[in-house]
Specification:
two-stranded parallel ribbon; 3 domains; single chain; oxidoreductase activity; mainly alpha
Amino acid sequence: MSSTSPPTGVTIDPLTCRTSAFPELAPFIDPSSATTLANLLAENHASHHSFFNQKGMHNHSLHQLIADTTLKATPAQLERHYAYQQKHYLSSFSYNDRSKYDPHLSDTSGSGKGGSSITKISEGNWTAHLGDARYYWSYLHFFDRVVAQLGFREVLHRYVFSQEANEGEAKMIVRFYGGVIHALIHFGYGLEMVVKEVAAEGLAMAAATGASHAWLFELDWLKKGASVREEKKGLLELVREVQMDDRLSVDRLGLKEEESSLPDKPFEEGSGRGVIQEYVDRWAAIADGKIDLETAMSDLALLSALLLGAVPRQADGKAYKHDFFLMHLNNAHLFTSLYLDLFADSPQLQRTFLRALLAQFIYYYVCRGRPAFTTSNFITEHEASADLAWEQLFADARENVDEHLPKAVRALYVFEQRYTGSQGKLLESGLLQGGGQDWAGGEASVWKLTAMQLVRMHRGELQPSQYDSEAEREKGESIGSHQEFWSFEAFF
């Protein structure tokens, strides 16, 4: 379907797509691209499930389209990326067939039995089918309605962070932060562009997500926090302790024997039980009823860059190793400021959001093997690619077939614009191995250097890429082009 003809019954105002809630990105949006974006978002809303296969892998088309738009993408680039996503990932998924899975529609055959096996979701039964991906369309109808009625703030409070939304097996906060943080990220795009349909998709995605890692998101703990005698410390100091804590070592947790990339057992009954929660409780920025939002935001932004750019390289010592799971932490944190602004009237909700986010940061970091951080990547990158300006990084990111690259690059850009003055804390923290005095607080920020790493890897400069030619890019992969560029091997 052309971007000039959105699907019947779904309309998104192009005016809402002409700006971003991030003032650092808003100037880069072309009005003609905003019109194309609005129509493609409407088509995706009407035509595609939040997953693209039975494994629960996520539909990233919207993420890519919005990120590209904020990096100066043209209408043609947006249409090309959406067509690629449709061809390689989205079109063949059986749950896209709303005649079978949407109880609000009639079967296209004329039998009138469309979605007859799927119950319509209402206020009275909205918790009854959580975790069942077949119910995505029914949940989308429900959340389309309640987001329009309640607005962003109230719908999040009622259907994600309230006691009712987390009773029994509902566990909506678990589902919202679970699934590699995709629902949180997706709803964040709705906040960024002020598009209620996108926010509804994020909530429907959460409703279709399993309640994995429930031990990490116990609501009473997130709201109240435990009383600890240990000294409260800054985030970077706490991460240094995490690196040295024997209870969280790869061997003590038995991570090498776990099949899952993000296992639960070592933290539910092993040496890691309760340890991550202890560290969250000791985070000084939000401890004892006080909230230092600026410190919390900047420290998480610094950690985001380290998790992508300062970790050990691949086995050949040349190619960078950018972890798929740690990358999502960077992308998710971009939206933290929007959530905190939304909850400005409730310090309790702000603390709950930040505590859950930090818990996820530490959990992912530990599961991936607690990689040490070094300045060597940054020093080498500075020497080799000092000529890559942000404008060039934007150009490479918005053109690349990998849907995750523009998201990562734009997050790093926003972090640099906001928090450059804070990176001197990295040397004070003792987190970094090696030198690096020449870049700390200098012209080349940790965020810019990390973005240059990502682009150089995607260019194929450091290892051959199977997407060097247009023909190879067109072929794609069955489970996502990102498989080539993002590492799934932990730092063991």
